[in-house]
Automatic annotation (TrEMBL):
PANTHER family membership: ARABINOSE-BINDING PROTEIN-RELATED, POLYGALACTURONAN_RHAMNOGALACTURONAN-BINDING PROTEIN YTCQ
Annotated keywords: Cell membrane, Lipoprotein, Membrane, Palmitate, Signal
Protein name: Extracellular solute-binding protein
Organism: Rossellomorea marisflavi
Top-rank lineage group of the source organism: Bacteria
The UniProt record lists the keyword Signal: yes
CDD domains, sorted: PBP2_AlgQ_like_1 (cd13580)
Amino acid sequence: MNKRMISRLGSVGLAGMLLLAGCSGEKGSSSSSEGGDGKITWMNILHTASPPTDTIVDEIEKKTDTKLEFSWVPDASKEERINTAIASDSLADIVTITMMDNSSVRNAMKSGMFWNVEDYLDDYPNLKDISEDVRKSASIEGKLYGVPFQKDLSRIGIVIRKDWLDNLGLDMPKTTEDLMKVAQAFTEDDPDGNGKDDTVGLLDRSDLVYSSFKTLATYFGAPNKWDVDEQGNFTPEFETEGYVKAMDYLKKMYDNGWVNKDFAVMAKTDQQQTFAQGKAGIYFGGLFDGQNFQNMAKGIQDDMELDLINDMTSTDYNKRVIWSEGNGVGGVLAFPRSEVKDEAELKKILQFVNDLHDEELYSLMTYGIEGTHYEEDADGLYKIIDQNLWQQEVQPLAASRPRETGYESKDPNPIKQKSNEMIAENADYAVLNPAVPLESGTYSSQGTELQKIITDATYQYILGEIDMKGFKKAVQSWEDQGGKTIKEEYKEAYKASQ
């Protein structure tokens, strides 16, 4: 069965995916026992509507001397499908696993279903460079059951209307105090000069993590979800002074009308469309959203001028920090023992994964082929020359790059290039979450339900529906209903991992 057929079959349904994966596993095992034909099967996550055509896959095969057979799992159904494939042991030589906190995945890894690769990485030049922090964060109970996907430590920052700052004679804000003054001016001083009271300073949404709140809390000194002391005692972020200061900060913005009044219920799509329409001047989120807003504003605000901020401190904390999502780990490439029968086959596959880290292959999976998908200008920047072809042949493979960091960015769009540079710079100031590699049974079973107690209380405090006494009551409820147990379980797991 050729890989084009596999690509088409990979997203047609659960039964088809499992059958395909099972066939791929049999073939992979057979090739190993017969001395190997360079073939590798890969159960991979698909983030686009359709799998890639063969063009880039053929190039990868040539450069790595392999034959690839993919079984594609749509991202929207990955949890169900990966869980089912694990339960039926219908896997492939390589399995892309991004849900590292999924209990079925973690149990399968701890059971010995996948190879522990920690003792092999240093034998390969590219895998050797994976940092200890990343290895630790991708581990489960101190063991590394796959090659970590190395993501940017933090892509978070602020997008701001540079033209509005210029219109009002304001400097780029450097502190949270400066930012609040800018938010006030963007709300009250007609920054777009249309003579109407139709703008707001900060445009926020119903998300305490990926919008403004968590970033502000970090500026005020809150940990990234959890803090741990020398004795191994864990403290959640919402029991710290920095978290409370962030609530007070947003409450002041809300009380004065410098943030949109509907922020607690606004969806991300509505938020971004509103910003692109010129109704607000400050946006917290991915630094890469600067380019997205430029594209969204075409034909609406062609003269919109944006800038980016990734260096901001609070007056009290006065330390440059930014929180990291997943500690720079986007999952792992795991190798099931049912498919990868012996150490010789494991080493062959690890060599392939090592090769995928080469800059030439990164460029191939990011930009495509020069002259076909992109062209290089006089400054060495890459410009996509056929967007539709790039989307068909290159874009579906971008999420399969096992490493996204450490390469020279080559984007001709100035704000996208600046975001790439700032994202790389963020790595030096990233605050990690010490609980990422740890396991708490209570957190796995009740974490989402318990977090809702804190999320609701945080919004209620900012909106003025409860006071600090009410917020502390909610924290105590979190403790009583399972939070205390989570702390204890993390402490035990932390000590065991040292």
